[in-house]
Amino acid sequence: MADHGDLLQRIDDLSARAASPRADPELLSAIEDVLAEGYMWALTEEAESRRMGSRLDRLVEALDEPGVAMEARRLALQQRSLDHRIDTLRARLATIREQFVRLGGGQSAPV
Fold this sequence. Notes:
Blueprint (H helix, E strand, L loop, with lengths): L3 H14 L7 H36 L7 H35 L9
């Protein structure tokens, strides 16, 4: 899977190409691929954020123990950063998905 920065760059590049009123099948296919990859990335990272949240819940119960407060703070900062990246990605995916639909992507061929 691509890293977060590379994925956002691909989304931005495709979004710029999708600004035209018409799209060729190659562009629609590329958008479809990046949407699938982006949603997979977002779901994976959301699962990681939930794991971090569960770990934080356990740490809160032991805050009086040595080093636990520092670990909880470190983990909370990591989770906040991860959640921000997820929010950024989800917003970009929503934008490119709207463009994809506007250009006729995802519609089945007439029978």
